[in-house]
Amino acid sequence: MDKTVRWVSSPVNVLLILFLLVILASSYLAYFPDIAFENIDKYYLWVVVYFLIINIVNSRRRFFIFVCIFLVSSFKISLALSMVWAKRGFSFTNWGLKGPPGFFENSGELAIQMLVFWPIAWAFCHVLKPRISRAWYWALMVMPVTAIMVILGASSRGAQLALICQLLIMNYRTLFQPKVFIAVALAFLMMWSFLPQEQKDRFSSIGEDTTSRQRMLYWENGLDMIKDNPLLGVGFYNFAPYYEKYYPDDILIGKAELPHNIFVQVGTDAGILGLVVFLGVIVIALRKAKGFRLMGCDGADEKLVGRCANLSLIGFLVAGQFVTVAYYPFLWIHLALLVSMMNGFRIQKIKNGRRLRQE
To answer: How far is CA 280 from CA 15, 194, 286, 292, 305, in A?
Structure first.
């Protein structure tokens, strides 16, 4: 009902609607249509949430408030769970760290939320640094620090590999400068020293333990499913029942689960057609963030927000190679934040241009 709200156009809008149409077609033609339509809300609700966010968060001020809500909510989780890990002496448990009920209860999904959270918190702290006191700056820096602690304590190998990728990509241009190289090396040394020995042993058993072998079978057979059903896949959320019916000898852990890979998940759910749309969304998101410039900032901070937005997305993509999270909030909320940011600053730029012409 707000009169300031105007329809926000973006190529992301078109791709999300197109992806929804592909999923609906895949559900109608699925091997198990009942299962497909039982799960259809796991995607279309994110489309609703996305359009609500981009059309309501339509100014720099609203975007700032929305990001603050996102940061405070994520920080509440990271602070509490980093304290839990510290209180148990940074020791290893099979369940890692357990988040609140919902999307982040499982340690793997919890760790991905922290991968998404810490780069945004990092950018927030550094952009505000010239405008706040030193005490406030270091207080805000607790956000990314506790997020990284949760990633290390969550016992998720995929998330920890994603964190390494994020740090290397973050510093790749200056990595061989002595100060940066030493800082990154010390950071990796500290993270490695914090990891419990049991977690280090899990890295040495990659590809050999039952969990790894089962996931590789999921990926291998999932690719076969896509080859056999290239246009629209086997049907939305049909991977598990299809796998149990056609690959019963490749089940090592009692029953078939989801494929533990976002691209295999989308490919089996919606075929190559859906996978192309999904990849298109990711490419557009990366390009838009890369080209973002923060008005009013000079030097390194000018591009920092866009770079950190891409680090956030890269964390999701790398960790998503080992878990089934294509329809979790990570990507869809990221897209809403990105489009809202672009739109809010574009409107402000237009207003500034009008004001200068009037003067």
So the answer is: 8, 38, 10, 18, 22
Rounded to whole angstroms, the Cα distance separating 99 from 327 reads: 18
* CA distances to 54, 122, 251, 342 from 8, in Å: 7, 28, 46, 10
For 238, the token pair is 């049909």
| Alpha-carbon span 241 to 56, nearest angstrom | 40
Helix segments in the chain, DSSP class H = 11-28, 33-38, 41-56, 60-87, 107-128, 134-140, 142-153, 157-170, 178-194, 197-204, 210-228, 239-246, 262-290, 301-319, 329-358
**What pLDDT, in 10s, does the model give residues 151-202?**
988 888 889 899 999 988 888 777 777 777 777 777 777 776 766 666 666 6
CA distance 315 to 1: 36
| Contact between 324 and 260 (Cβ < 8 Å) | yes
* 328, 331, 332, 337 alpha-carbon torsion, rounded to 10°: 130
Q: Is 66 left (phi over 0), alpha (psi -120 to 50) or beta?
A: alpha
**Alpha carbon distance 288, 52 (integer Å):** 20
CA distances from 242 to 71, 164, 236, 324 (A): 40, 35, 11, 16
Percent pLDDT > 90 in the chain is 56
pLDDT, mean of residues 258-287: 95
Tokens of 44: 């279309």
Give me 335's structure tokens. 């897209």
Q: What is the pTM of this model?
A: 0.88
d(CA 255, CA 216): 15
What the block records as the tokens of 11 is: 């190529």
**CA distances for 329 relative to 33, 103, 119, 336, angstroms:** 24, 8, 17, 10
CA pair distance 101, 111, nearest whole angstrom: 14
CA–CA dist 319, 340 (Å, integer): 25
